[in-house]
Amino acid sequence: MNPVPEPSQAHIGDRAFVLLQWMLPTRWLSTLIFRLSRIRHDGFKNALIKLFMRGFKIDLSEAQFNYPQQYESFNHFFTRALQPGARPLPDDAQTFVSPVDGTISQFGEIEEGLVFQAKGHRYSVLDLLGGDEKAALKFMHGRFCTIYLAPYNYHRIHMPIAGTLKRWSYVPGRLFSVNAATARAMPKLFARNERVNAIFDTAAGDVGVTLVGALFVGSIETVWAGCISPPHLRGEPIHYQPTNTVTLDRAEELGRFNMGSTVILLTEADAVNWQPDLAPGQAVRMGQALGQWRARNQPLRKTAENATEPDAGNPTPPTTL
User: Fold this and answer.
1) Which of 45, 49, 130, 136 could make an SS bond with 237 (beta carbons 3.0 to 4.6 A apart)?
2) Which residue range is the domain that position 291 belongs to?
3) How confident is the model over 107-122, as a mean pLDDT?
């Protein structure tokens, strides 16, 4: 049974912003940003970095390099590395961690293969994964977490749990903004935009990590394929099987964005219990606990109320949408 549709909470301003984006040459703008961000002229890139730092109040104290002059280009600054130890991990190895610095957009249960985007809007896992039925089937009744990266955030993406890459895909699409206003007004936003999907085999079952492109996102990169976008292609999704084994530890880098965007995490049913205090609008940092994962062969136990829950000593909190 599909969820009952809800009325959208989009404002007139949200709809006007979406209408403007339909008229913009978004691919051309993203390609322009890609080229400008890689200019290495000292005067140009230093001025651009300082302007960006001033506008977004960027703090470089945790970064590997603390001064604009140390970066080869604006893109080098934007995808800056952190100092070792800047994002300590929880001691518990079964903690499912945030892959990025960002803001929780939504999280909860995947209902009949539908993911909650904003009130009045849902999209299908199958559409998100570019029609990969085998991958989508694993997540039909699973759980999801959507995290928005603002321009001021750290822009490398890391593993929420250790895993081995099973398959990945590049899905051509639009390049709409992925901010809250667009999410409220644009149906199936994350299934429309250009994106890269990666499915990992983990101790908790299959885990999906989707890197969603957006307006002004000049590139999406992964550690196994390098720069995937640009070029911003059109046409059908392209599905890949890794030619070499790619195994990544928890919190190990898997990719990066140039400019802000969104990461969507998918898990199988009952694979993760979200933290009780997790909430939409909450700021998170890479390595911060999002929940506790349950090994795929770990049995469920019965509660006093005859409900089932993971035998991990961490009851499942109510789904938050």
Assistant:
1) 130
2) 95-296+306-310
3) 90
